[in-house]
Amino acid sequence: MPTYKSIIVTERGGPEALQVVENELREPGPGEVRIRILATPVCQDDIAARVGNRPFLPKLPFVPGYSILGVVDAVGREVTEVAVGDRVAALTQLGGYAEYIYLGEDQFVPVPEALDPAEAAVLILNYLVAYQVLHHVAQVKPGDKVLIVGASGGVGTAFLQLGQLAGLKMYGLASPSKHHILAEYGAIPIDYHTQDFVEVIDQAEPAGLDFVFNGMGDEYLTRGLKVLRRGGTLVHYGGPESLSGFLRLMAKFVLVNVLPNGKSIKGYGTHTGSVDTFKEDWAQLFRLLEGGQISPIVAARFPILQAPEANALLEAGQVIGNIVLLAPELL
Length: 331
Description:
- By secondary structure, the protein is of the alpha/beta class.
- It has helices at residues 44-51, 117-137, 154-165, 179-184, 197-204, 221-226, 243-258, 275-290, 307-315; strands at 3-9, 18-24, 32-42, 67-75, 87-91, 100-104, 109-110, 145-149, 169-174, 188-191, 209-214, 228-236, 264-267, 298-303, 322-326.
- The protein is 31% helix and 27% strand.
- Helix 2 (117-137) crosses helix 3 and helix 2 (117-137) packs across helix 8 (275-290).
């Protein structure tokens, strides 16, 4: 019986909780598609699910991997939307740290063959978040002034590139060693370790900012609201670390949005959307990548089965951009 390998989380904890296991490579069932995974990015949600820093966690054991890009390897009966050999991508939430994955045919978006799998895979989550926050939630326009909290990470660098394309005036929070990447995309860097970003922005923009984009934690909410102009909006897209944190976040949303202070908070999460609502934006992001208008930063590439090492690197906090797990032939 043929088999394939995947990485499972066996217990809450560090990268050592990731273990390689073998699984039966079965035929896909009716309406099901078997994908040979070429690329899956390592993201903060993977780590949070493993460590236990989320209010709603997958049951143990589970295979992490929030998004995948791969090739259709086999299709079940009644599958008509994709064919063997097609290159596709999907937002999976779980299951990406594996050599193969089984999904329903309605979960995929086609991926142009010419794109680098590592770069294209990064678009499925990180760039989707940034694009939808910018253009659907905030509906930014050229000249808007914004603050990006956590500007050097996977989603942060997506904000930088897409924000530059949108003609925004950007401020970004990052460690000094990462300031060069913010400057490369025209953003004004602020060292959140040694500088009070509220004071810095108050001096630079006395009238306040149009938007704050926060994916780091609710500790940035109160201070982020302070730098907004009247009528400005803070968009929060990061997952809370606990149920109590989730409840505090919801209470903050309600309080700010009902008070007559002229400022508002909006939330964003991919869990509120669907493949149908994402496909058009994914297609646009693929076009931007094909045209060289965006260029995802891939800081490190690992074989899929070296997920523990990739997770440890991301957790170290020194990475600019993204880490991607790849099939061996792409390394």
